[in-house]
Amino acid sequence: MKNLLLSAAAAALVAVAAAPAACAQSVRFGLKAGGNLSNLSGDLANQDQYQNRFGFHGGAMLNVGLVGDDLLALQLEGLYSQKGFKYADQQVTVLGSTYRNTGSVRYDYIDVPLLLRVKTSGVFFEAGPQYSYLLNISTDRTRTVNGNATSASTATADLGRVKRNELGYAAGLGFQADNGFLLGLRYNGAFTDFAKDGYSDNEFRNARHSTFQAYIGVLLGGK
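RESULT FIELD:
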């Protein structure tokens, strides 16, 4: 799956590079920004203790029209994106001891989605692979055992215990006006988990990021 995804991404990048010189109907640059609603997915032992966390994303777009009046296009983006989760304010009892976590964890990524985009009457649909690179982890958590605080942290985590490169996918829909203004909804997920053995006491083994996005933006320029 990883090799297939990498091959598809490489082929699409070649297509983006070749399109302006070959058959591109238009080449447009743009900016976008919006909000994230993120959490963890995967085979997690205590899924209920993780809740959605709000964050921000924003960056630049390169849209290459391939067919007709942008009926079919490739869109390459470079985005800063805040992902993560917050702990549910609940207690978990394991072997007679009661544990409780409060706070949140934020993962700062650079996302590079490469999307095939279909647009008709202003409405567009998009989907494609996404590469993500982890920049930073910010943890603000308090852990208690049997009512006694055992640890509290507000710090940047050790990146050596996580996988900084992530392969995933993105898909969404939206509306684009004739003047280039657009708004959209998108989901992006991961094919790969991000935790190495030993990270946070193996709490996030098999965990993957799951993010819903809402955004506004504008595409400028022409061929």
